[in-house]
Write a structure and sequence with these properties.
Number of strands: 7
Strand order of the largest sheet: 1-3-4-2-5
Order of helices and strands: HEEHEEHHEEEH
């Protein structure tokens, strides 16, 4: 099965843009998969959100150099599922999925991360900064809508509850896991 990687149709974008407060802007999206990359969002027990704005190019470069080094540590961090970071005008946002709050806190408490935080405050790399960790308190299953029948099946079942056809899980697929 091949899944689409396209934006919404122009008519949907036009309708969205007609809503007060909606903005659609080209941006850079960076993603990183971790050791638990085979899990979908339903496998996350914790979600981290970071926000930053920058006012000085040299200070921003210092931040990104340190962030790149932390990403090397993140690539092997136990319990790390994946992260997405993107900009919305001057706002940089990172969303990271962790298997458990304890996994996220272990990375946060690591010597490398603690040193990076000290440098952030010492060098004033950012104009504004926000970070918070949320625990999943209402776990939900990710479902797959069968393309062969009208079955709706939890992704973890791997076979349609309606017709028995094997279901493709884009998170557990070898192409996604190995990329």
């Amino acid at each position: 099965m091949e899944l689409l990687s396209t934006p919404p149709p122009p008519t949907a974008i036009a309708r969205m843009l007609a809503i007060d407060g909606v903005q659609v802007t080209p941006t850079m999206l960076a993603t990183q998969q971790g050791p638990e990359r085979h899990l979908g969002p339903e496998g996350a027990g914790a979600v981290l959100i970071l926000q930053a704005t920058f006012a000085d190019p040299d200070r921003a470069a210092g931040f990104w150099a340190t962030a790149s080094a932390l990403m090397e540590q993140l690539a092997v961090a136990p319990g790390f599922i994946r992260r997405y970071n993107f900009s919305d005008g001057p706002h940089y946002t990172l969303i990271a999925l962790w298997r458990t709050p304890a996994d996220a806190n272990a990375f946060f408490s690591s010597a490398e991360h603690q040193a990076a935080m000290r440098e952030l405050f010492r060098n004033r790399w950012q104009y504004s900064h926000f970070a918070a960790l949320w625990e999943m308190n209402s776990p939900r299953q990710r479902v797959i809508f069968c393309q062969e029948c009208d079955g709706v099946t939890p992704a973890s079942d791997r076979r349609c509850n309606g017709c028995g056809v094997e279901l493709f899980d884009p998170y557990a697929s070898p192409a996604h896991v190995d990329s």
